[in-house]
Structure formats: C-alpha cells, structure tokens
Amino acid sequence: MFESLTNKFNSVFRSLSGRGRITEANIGDAVNDVRKALLEADVNYQVAKQFCKDVREAALGAEVIKSLHPGQVFIKIVNDELTRLMGPVDTRIYFVSPGPTVIMLAGLQGGGKTTTAAKLGKYLVSKGRRPLMVADDLQRPAAIEQLRVLGEQLDIDVYTEDSKDAVAVAKNGVKFAKEKGHDVVVLDTAGRLHVDEEMMSEIQRVAKAVTPHQIYLVCDAMTGQDAVNSAKEFNERLELDGVILTKLDGDARGGAALSVKAVTGKPIKFIGVGEKLDKIEEFHPDRMASRILGMGDVVSLVEKAQEHFEAEEAAKMQAKMVKGSFGFDDFLKQMHAVKKMGGIRDMLKMIPGMGSQLGDLEVDDSELARMEAIVYSMTAQERRQPDLIDSSRRRRIAKGSGVQPHDVSGLAKTFMRSRDMMKSLSGGKLSGLKNLFSGGMNMGAMAQAMTQGKKIKQRSKRLRNIKRGGKIKKRR
To answer: What is the pTM of this model?
Structure first.
C-alpha cells in the first residue's frame, strides 16, 4: 500500500538531505513536490492544499532553515502533519450494556461490506464477544448465501430471512440476537449509490427502526476520491460513527485514506489489508504515517508477533538469543509463524530501514520455502551449530535442497551474523529492540537472508547473460 506515495516522499526527503543548508525557497520547492505527490495519489485537492500550507508553516516555525539536519526535521514535520490529518486514534467500538450492541455497515456496491462483516465478526470473537451477523443485503444475488457460508467458516451465527423487507429483517435480526444471548449484532446492508434516493431512504428507515449504536461506512480505498465523495453523502444522511477502508493492500496511491477523515470528520476505524478473513486491522494514524514515509511500523509488527507466539516460547527464544545459542531449528519455528502472520513483503516494510532495501525485489513466500528446504537438508547437529557447515557440507545441503552452494553459504553467514547481533543487543542497552526480539521475532535475520537470496539470484542471472553474450541494461 502507498508505494507510489512513499517513493515520491522519499525522493523529496533525499533532495533536502543532500543540502548543507536549507533556504525558504528550498522549503517552498519541497512543499510543492509534496503537493504534487499528494495529488497524484488521488488525495482531495482541498485536503492536499491545506496539508501543504500546514507543513510550510510548521517548517518555517520550527526553524528548519537553521537546523544542522534539515531533511530529518522536515521528515518529522511531514510525519506529524500526516498523523494529524488522519487522526486522532479512535479504534474503540462502544459497547452497550445490556446488549446487544448493533453495528450497521453501509456503503456502495462492490465495496466489500459482506466480507467486512465477516472480518469484523471474527475480530469481535477475538475480543471475547459473541456476535450475530444479520444478512440484510436483499438486493445482491447470493449475498445472503455468501454471508451464511462465511459464518460457517468462522463458526459465527448468521440470521437470514426469505424476505424483501430490509427494515423487517433488521428488526427481527436484533430481536433474535436478544433471545439467543448475542452481545453484538453486525448488520450487513445492501450496497447503494449515494445518489439513489429510494435506496438511501431505505437505509435511513433501517437505521431508524433498529437505532444502531455504531454506523460504519465501508469504502473501497481503490476508488480514491469517489470513496471520499460518497462518504460525505452517506454521513449527511446517516450520521456515521466511523469508516472502514477495504482493499487498502491493493491501493498503491492512498488518496482515500488521507482524505476521508478530513472531508467527513469521522475517524477511520479499521482497514482491510487482504482477502483472508483475518486481514482486518485497527487503524492507527501514527503507524500509518510511519509506513507512508517508509519508516516502518515496529509496534504493529510486535503485536502481530505476539498473536502468533506463546509467552513461554518467546521467553525461551529470548534466553537463547542472550546465550547466543539460537539455532536453525528455532529459525524454522519462526518461519512457520511468519507464514501465519501474512504477506512477507508488507511485514518486512514494518521494519525500519527495510523498505528502502527491498526496492524492486519481489519478496514472496517462495523465498521462505527455499530457506526452509535448505534448513531441512541440514543434519540436526548442523542446525544447532551452523559454524560446522564447511564447503563439503554446503555442497551436500545444496544438492539436497535443490539450490546452489552459495545459497547455503549466504543463508548460514547471514544467520550467524544476525545471531551475534541479537546476542549483543539482548545484553546491551537497546531495550526497545530487546523487547521486539523477546516477542519471538528474529525478522532481521530472516529479512536479510531473503533479500540476500534474491540479490544473489539476480547477480547470477546477470553473469549468465554475460557468458551467453547477452546485453545487460544499465541501471538508472
């Protein structure tokens, strides 16, 4: 997500960092570049204009011109303004007692409401709630069946009716929830155009009938400013409590995420970052700003790690890191956890400094499989003591895993180097990093190994082309 915007921001920051001193004119040039980047990312024009005005005023007020590191100060200012633009943080769902708490989802056709209803249901279960999903999309063919199937996959009850009366289905669904002891109702309504007066009147009647405690607008982030315009109209008719942005993983621009809060005044509550039913995240403006600027998101990375590592296992990992006895068997456990945690590339971007190293490298699950094959081809002793892996052992391991000896060598060297670094950090002063690693994650070693493997493959391909007399395009 936001790859295009991130690249343009980094280009602006590099141009500032290359200057010894910054003048007011330089600041003006940088802000103009930021404005162009925002508009190309499909950010609302008025939002982009006001944002750049605020950045310019803050930059001059912070005396960036007199700073020894003007580029760094400018980055901080942009980061703070992005956080303010998308904030404040409000990921809470306000539950009522006695229940059930009624959450109504509204939005355009094709925005992903039904899938989001299921994702939200799974999220609520993880928080100890007992939700009921109500299939109130009576317009789209198979919408009811889709929600029913998703409910079966998640083991969440779904209320359905063979009816064409959306108001009656909503009322009966809430009544059913009270009778069966459900403490939350997730109401999946039909998609509708904000200019369709009949359909907008219908959803107003549904809202009046069940008086939902929370109304969330589900927006497809890939529609850019159109999502923001529809959000404004829905807010005027329904008085929204928040927005859920879907398909954010497929949007390289990010205009909707940066505009919707400023235009509607309503907070972004959740974001959808994948097709799987666990791919919904609470929205944190400060973390998102860091991701946009290529600064990583360590907090979210730690939270993901904690979800997939038991406390006892994490403590064992930490103890091994302190002693320097962390082996490839432990590395395998972490690879298996990483597979459960989602997309490899997005996780690597959460590590500060890793985003810029990735560049155009296509890092995917196949790299994990390659590393896994190498480790499984080692003996138990070699996994415990990677120092034993000499040239003959490398050839044997390479043959067993279907890779080249230099692949084995690269993985072993990177692993040992990272292991030594983990040991020194765990016993040193960097308590923040120590806390990250105590969550069970040795992502540094894994990330380096994966990117190193890709670079080795690319170099090998280039060498083969040279031998064959092929031409190699120069990097620009």
So the answer is: 0.69
